[in-house]
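Input sequence (534 aa), recorded before submission:
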Amino acid sequence: MMQIFDNALLFDPAGAEWRPAAFSAEDGLVCAVGAPGSLTGHRVTDLGGARVVPGLIDAHVHIESSLLTPREFGRLSLRNGVTTVIADPHEIANVSGCAGIDFMIRDAKSSPADIFFMIPSCVPATPLDKGGAVISAEDVASYKNTPSVIGLGEMMNVPGVLSGDPEVLAKLAVFDHIDGHAPGLSGEALCSYVARHIKTDHECTSADEGREKLSLGMYVLLREGDAAKNIAALSEIVNDMTASRCCFCTDDRHTDSLVREGSIDHCIRVAMNCGMKLEHALRLATLSAADCFGLADRGMIAPGRVADFCILVDGPEFAVLEVYKNGMPASSIDMPGSSPSCASPPFSCRVPKKEELALPAGKLRVIGLVQGEIITEVLDSETAGDLCKVVSVDRYRSEGSGVGLVSGFNFKKGAIAASISHDAHNIIAAGVTDEEIILAIRAVTDGGGGMAVVCDGKTSVLSLPCGGLMTPLAYEEVAQQLEELAGRLKMTGASPAAFMNLAFLSLTVIPHLRITPRGLFDGDLFQDVPIRFS
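Predicted structure, token format:
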């Protein structure tokens, strides 16, 4: 039945302007847009002059980082006004391979939000990394005609692209849309990377980097996650001319952050606080993202496009009052049953003994955390302060563990561990004493995956039975458990972002220094390095 939404103050992202309007919807699509009072129908909703914007779009996210399954992530996304999600499932792909990707695609079908997928391009992240699976070019090609798949996920193997590695080139040839991942890449090397038709980058950390990538034809995704917060540094690149080439993304956010702060709606608020015009921020969050990914059926309220929109709270701050999906209130959408099980290999982990965590004497390399970033610094043990051990333990083949030093966690006591450590998702831990680190590792292993805090002789664990990354629980319950875990974490003295920071210390495709079960890895040299300076 035709629905009329009258007396709206409608945002038009194409013109970046507001105008009084009425619009109609039927069978989930917008039928017409006109002046207030110009449309007739049996079901009329008078919006009373409320501001209405198209449904928001998250241009790049790893659903697994929320700790939720796709169906629950979609339900939480709608709460924040996000009606379309572009997801890269390379976290579960590193654990379970194609079976993990298939689980995500299958479970997303029961999500109330629309979830599109980018097929992971770099599993494992580097040839040296050992996870639970390998995704080949042939595997990538097998998803070519999957309806919800729209492109190739972030191409992190920059050396492989620049050297023309045959396997990398075969993956790049499968899809027209290719997401990028090129932190700090510049000059001729960046030109060579872009020449492979890589379209986006979400790793910019400075305005100069963002401008260079825009000037070479890339879309720049302004990221505001839990560990990496880049909107403040990048907001100045957005203007009348560049807004069509920029989008927002969250990349990695835990459920409690999504509940407490929001998603793309949070990105808009952060951008506005940095001086970005609301109209520019809304363009990034809607039509720019739709255009970037070739989603011509959404991004604005216009005839033939999906009837996804948000009614805003009246006032200067951007806040979503009500969300409509396919022309229906999101609150009225029925949810199907629970998520199916996710195939994942069993844990095969050898918990390290205390003597295995001993470090050599002398001047040692130290991983330095950088506030609000996932890049790290290379420090040394003779000058760096706030040192604690970090341990990466193989969870797939019982092949042992690597030990390093990290600065910046601010632990006063205790330890934490998790089966979330990008991208191979081995077990990673950090803490004050060897005994507490070992207890935390054992808690995660014994539970078949999760996040653990050890403090004052007590161990608290959030269980993640889906590949050690996700739980099938409702987002409300997950948020509550995370809040309880955060209370235990606070007792250690570490920052609230400690788990997210810890998870990225093993991501070998990010500069500068990382930890793996083999030991330290230099993200610039793309090779293992000894902990002791020579």
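Checked by second reader. The longest strand covers residues 3-12.
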